[in-house]
């Protein structure tokens, strides 16, 4: 088995190195990751310039693009042989609830799935700026990859995995979950740069709102690994008929 490993924290991040090392024990691993931290890049592709690629002495390949760029390049021509699976992570911090909308970690897995590969996104759910238990998350990922290889899931499923930042022996178990939901994000932080220009930092993510039993937030809070099946198709199928009825009353020609 050939596994493509990527992330959004950059090719030098401890999480990707722990992950690649662990997966290297069960498969051939190729790392293609951003040359710098691209957290929050979501599913963006770089279309206004060419992308530069560098291979380091350790064999890790870095690009000056986004996580989505990395996976897209790897599968569509950069690598001599296509990977069998894409694993993204291990992210230094959680990707819970609506975090997945912005996450470059999740986006890398989504790109792999949209290009026909089984895909897993892995994050270490920690409030600490320096998460400690990447090895536990890597061990759990190895178990998931082995299971996915022998018991494949439907082709449209991406696994969004969040692991408590705990030693492996302190993790309570593993649960299938749904995405929870956060309150509105904190306000932007206004500041002034050294040249007197007003600038803004995006505020912190909002606190948990929908975080009851069955959600990814609840699993992490109770020391469980959260495994949430997500998909690329965002269509709300149960609303198609309602929207069709609603459109019957739209005077769309009146604007011409």
Description:
With 256 residues, the protein is of the alpha/beta class. The chain has one domain (2-181, 209-255): Survival protein SurE-like phosphatase/nucleotidase (Stationary-phase Survival Protein Sure Homolog, Chain: A). The chain has 6 helices and 13 strands. It has helices at 14-23, 67-78, 104-114, 134-150, 216-221, 240-247; strands at 2-6, 28-34, 53-55, 61-63, 85-92, 119-125, 158-164, 173-176, 181-182, 189-192, 198-201, 208-210, 224-230. A 9-stranded mixed beta sheet has the order 3-4-2-1-5-6-7-13-8. Helix 3 (104-114) links the parallel strand 5 and strand 6. The model has no long low-confidence stretch (mean pLDDT 93).
Keywords for this structure?
alpha/beta, 13 strands, two-stranded antiparallel ribbon, 256 residues, globular, 6 helices, Stationary-phase Survival Protein Sure Homolog, Chain: A
Can you tell me the overall shape? globular
- Please bin the fraction of helical residues: 25-40%
Content of β-strand: 25-35%
Number of domains: 1
Q: How does CATH name the architecture? A: 3-Layer(aba) Sandwich
**How many E-type strands?**
13
Derived from helix and strand composition plus strand pairing, the structural class reads: alpha/beta
CATH class annotation:
Alpha Beta
Sketch the major β-sheet.
9 strands, mixed
Quick check: average pLDDT?
93
Order of helices and strands: EHEEEHEHEHEEEEEEHEH
Q: Order of strands across the widest beta sheet?
A: 3-4-2-1-5-6-7-13-8
Note the gap between the termini: 57 Å
**CATH homologous superfamily classification:** Survival protein SurE-like phosphatase/nucleotidase
Radius of gyration: 20 Å
Question: What's the CATH topology label?
Answer: Stationary-phase Survival Protein Sure Homolog, Chain: A
The tally of helices reads 6
Q: pLDDT under 50 segments (min length 5)?
A: none
């Amino acid at each position: 088995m050939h596994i493509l490993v990527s992330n959004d924290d950059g090719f030098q991040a401890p999480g990707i190195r722990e992950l690649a090392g662990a997966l290297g024990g069960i498969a051939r691993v190729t790392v293609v990751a951003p040359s710098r931290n691209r957290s929050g890049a979501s599913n963006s592709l770089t279309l206004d310039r060419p992308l530069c690629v560098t291979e380091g002495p350790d064999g890790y390949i870095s690009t000056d693009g986004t996580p989505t760029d990395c996976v897209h390049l790897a599968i569509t021509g950069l690598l001599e042989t296509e990977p069998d699976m894409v694993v993204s992570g291990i992210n230094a911090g959680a990707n819970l609830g609506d975090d997945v909308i912005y996450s470059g970690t999740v986006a890398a897995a989504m790109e792999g799935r949209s290009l026909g590969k089984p895909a897993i996104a892995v994050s270490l759910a920690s409030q600490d700026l320096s998460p400690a238990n990447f090895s536990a998350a890597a061990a759990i990922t190895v178990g998931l990859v082995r299971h996915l290889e022998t018991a494949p899931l439907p082709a449209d499923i991406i696994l969004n995995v969040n692991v408590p930042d705990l030693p492996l022996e302190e993790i309570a178990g593993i649960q299938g979950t749904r995405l929870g939901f956060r309150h509105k994000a904190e306000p932007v932080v206004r500041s002034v740069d050294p040249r007197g220009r007003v600038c803004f930092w995006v505020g912190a993510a909002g606190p948990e709102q929908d975080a009851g039993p069955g959600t990814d937030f609840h699993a992490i809070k109770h020391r469980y690994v959260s495994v949430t099946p997500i998909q690329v198709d965002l269509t709300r199928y149960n609303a198609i008929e309602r929207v069709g009825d609603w459109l019957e009353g739209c005077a769309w020609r009146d604007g011409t």
